[in-house]
Every structure is written in C-alpha cells, then in structure tokens.
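It would be a great kindness if you could assist me with a short task in structural biology. A protein sequence and the structure tokens that stand for its backbone fold form the material at issue. I should value your view on which stretches of the chain appear to form regular backbone elements. The record follows directly beneath this note.
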Amino acid sequence: MHAHDSYDYAVIRVVPRVERGEFVNVGIVLSCERTQYLAARFALDPARLLALDPGIDLQTVQRHLEGFAAICAGAADAGPIARLPQRARFHWLTAPRSAIIQTSPVHAGRCADPEAALAHLLATMVTVAPRALR
C-alpha cells in the first residue's frame, strides 16, 4: 500500500463585484509535489453567481476558469505561466489578487490519491447539496 503524500489546496472563488467582497466557491486547485500532480476542478453554479450580480458575464467567468485549468495542466497555449514548474504554477495561481477569480488561503492535507482528494474537496467545499424540507 502506498504511503500518504502531502498536498496543498485552495478553494477557487468567483468574486462578481470585487468592491463588495462577496464570493461563491466554484472550484478547487490541488498540488501534490511528490507525484507532480496539479489540477483544478470546478462546479459552477450560475444561479448563485447571478444572485450576487445579475449582470455578471458567465461566459467570461467560464473562460477565466478554463484558463486557470489550462495553466494547471501546463497547456502549450496557456501562456508563459503554464511553462513554469508545477509548484511555481500553483503558487502563482494561489497568490492573493484583487480580481474576479480569487483563491482562499492555501491549506494542507495528506492523501494516497490526489485525484480522489480533489473530488472529495470539491464535493465538500464547493458543491451545494439540496437541503431537505422540514
């Protein structure tokens, strides 16, 4: 059995109106240095974003999130940041910024499978399960 590896992750947030500071969690970025794993997964809920800003351009948000994922993947067409080493890309993506796409502070964890850890974090930190009526 494989020992658990350390990983770092951050929650990816959309901040429709930066001046208000309100945000919706839309994804997770996870980096596991030993396995050279870096990926982002998203669960975009347009209704939640539109509740914060009815005028938000959802296509632009989607395009920015696709760019975020392309940098994680080191895609050839994702610009110079995508050519940086894996850890440098993670740190660039999670650096504090005042933009429509932001991340939470970086947190750490341990796992045997980074992809499974990413899926679990997405389910617990991003996806909103419907509440039962009382």
